[in-house]
Amino acid sequence: xxxxxxKEFPQYPSDHPDYWRVRLIIHALLIVSCYFCILTMTNLxxxxxxxxxxxxxxxxxxxxxIYVYFRKTxxxxxxxxxxxxxxxxxxxxxxxxxxxxxxxxxxxxxxxPVAFFLLGKKWGSWVIxxxxxxxxxxxxxxxx
Length: 144
Prior knowledge:
Elements: H1 19-46, H2 50-73, H3 76-98, H4 104-107, H5 111-132
């Protein structure tokens, strides 16, 4: 399924430590691209909301750009950072737009596993620490 989406990287056979990182990067970019494509079309056709359609279309272009760059350069570390930042941005924008309601904080639990798996223990901790460490405002809904 989706053989056109996958590129075989001969330097990462199934017993290589980065094999599953490459697979997660490819799958995450596929899911995010489909997500943004559906949202762009929904906002254009069903809701005629051109502002959100532009925002979702920009996200689609960014995710496809990361995918094309990753396929051409095969830079796993760069793609891991790009996918982590992309997924973190999507989830945090949703949490902020929902205001902590509609089970939005549940989706924030996706960020730590993705960050740790793609970036490792040191940089994954750094990403999570920077998300949780922000100026504390008692009137503001807090993520951590």
